[in-house]
């Protein structure tokens, strides 16, 4: 007898960078915020935009476009900071837009393709096909390393 309920679905937050859709598990997302003032931090890695004061908690902010070596773009009305947590660490991820919350069936998730022509290959935990959409599932631990 298989335990299909536990492994059958993964609930994810879908967000955009350029024209691609990415996803991270809802269990790793604390909140989604509009972009606010980000205080720069001297000598931080280029993809670290700085820190924000989020309800009294100082939270580092990473620009995922910069982290993935994508072209810079000005923030728009749709730009969001996804507050994600992993291993007692919270971080804000700047994304172009946060679109949906979706349930992905585990049998619809494939491991990353052997040939990925982009820098973010190491940050990918899999690819999910939902109807005509292709979602890139991020491995947050690798992104934050």
Automatic annotation (TrEMBL):
GO biological process: chemotaxis; signal transduction
Domain of life per record: Bacteria
Residues in coiled coil: none
Signal peptide segment: none
GO cellular component: cytosol
Location of the CheW-like domain: 9-145
SUPFAM superfamilies: CheW-like
Classification via InterPro entries: CheW (IPR039315), CheW-like_dom_sf (IPR036061), CheW-lke_dom (IPR002545)
Protein name as annotated: Chemotaxis protein CheW
Organism: Bacillus salacetis
């Amino acid at each position: 007898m298989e335990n299909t309920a536990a492994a059958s679905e993964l609930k994810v937050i879908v967000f955009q960078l350029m024209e691609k859709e990415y996803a991270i598990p809802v269990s790793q997302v604390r909140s989604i915020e509009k972009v606010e003032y980000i205080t720069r931090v001297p000598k931080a890695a280029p993809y670290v935009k700085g820190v924000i004061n989020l309800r009294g908690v100082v939270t580092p902010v990473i620009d995922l476009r910069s982290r993935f070596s994508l072209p810079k773009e000005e923030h728009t009305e749709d730009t969001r900071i996804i507050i994600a947590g992993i291993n007692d660490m919270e971080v804000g991820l700047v994304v172009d837009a946060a679109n949906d919350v979706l349930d992905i069936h585990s049998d619809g998730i494939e491991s990353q393709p052997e040939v990925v022509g982009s820098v973010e290959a190491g940050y990918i935990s899999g690819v999910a096909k939902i109807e005509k959409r292709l979602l890139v599932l991020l491995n947050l631990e690798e992104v934050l390393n």
